[in-house]
């Protein structure tokens, strides 16, 4: 890895020379996320491929782990941010390929950056590697590590929910400064095509209707809705379970668990956001049970146990609340 200066952007960058047999996935260059090291360009020099990337000022996770397992709070902060990076990449159809501590960096501000995306493999390989990473950071194995190492089909989003007790946050829009540093040939070609199409449509439609051609151009240029789409933010109360956008099939056997969660919420044994996260998980379980997918439902119940344990560690549920909800989950699992 080398540090260089990008004269066109006017800022320092990192340059990594690769093994001549390695060819990064071109799609990885378009990944844009706060927890992913940005790739600016790639190419080859004298037959040796290279990648020009964002320069991260900080320390690698490998250096930190050389001193042994991390403090649980620090390990959790790193793990959840790595999950977000994996979720963003997997959603874009890009697997990391060789996730390991030396490819994870902790910037001076505490932001975790995952680099070297797109060198083969698939998402299951990434989640297996993440299980090894969790074990090394926390210095122990637990249920979620065992599931990942047995290659269970847990996604990065599901693991994030288990670790944090929260749904995956909606990513912030990419900063203008970062967007300006990315290649724009594809963007210019797209815009030129849209404008040309709009002009053709406007010319063809002119004799047929009295409307102004400008209305066609404005419509062609509006690729996104002008009003932001509001995020669903259900409020959990002690009187009734939260409503969800999709109807949850009735009679799936989760009502007893839901009732216990609500009773513990009313008794102040669990926080509202933790109860909401468990209700979201229950909705998923209910749909699997209603569709006769017993194995998938049992897998989600196992994940819910881990999620509940994480909430207990974060003091979002008391010991009494944990015992009551866990007993209800076990009873549901025994009946499926």
Chain-wise SSE layout:
Layout: E1 2-6, E2 11-17, E3 39-45, E4 48-54, E5 58-60, H1 61-65, H2 72-91, E6 104-107, E7 112-114, H3 123-138, H4 143-149, H5 156-164, H6 176-180, H7 185-205, H8 213-221, H9 255-266, H10 272-290, H11 294-313, H12 319-335
Antiparallel strand pairs: 1-2, 2-4, 3-4, 5-6, 6-7
Short description:
The chain is an alpha+beta fold and 336 residues long. Helix content is 48%, strand content 11%. The protein is built from twelve helices and seven strands.
Can you tell me about this structure?
By secondary structure, this protein is α+β, with helices and mostly antiparallel strands. The protein has 4 domains: 2-54, Phosphorylase Kinase, domain 1; 58-164, Transferase(Phosphotransferase) domain 1 (Transferase(Phosphotransferase), domain 1, Orthogonal Bundle); 184-221; 255-335, no CATH class. It is elongated and about 65 Å long. A hairpin with a 4-residue loop joins strand 6 (104-107) and strand 7. Residues 174-190 and 208-251 have low confidence and may be disordered. The N and C termini lie far apart (53 Å). It has 12 helices and 7 strands. It has a 4-stranded antiparallel beta sheet with strand order 1-2-4-3, with no helix packed on it. Strands 5-6-7 form a 3-stranded antiparallel beta sheet.
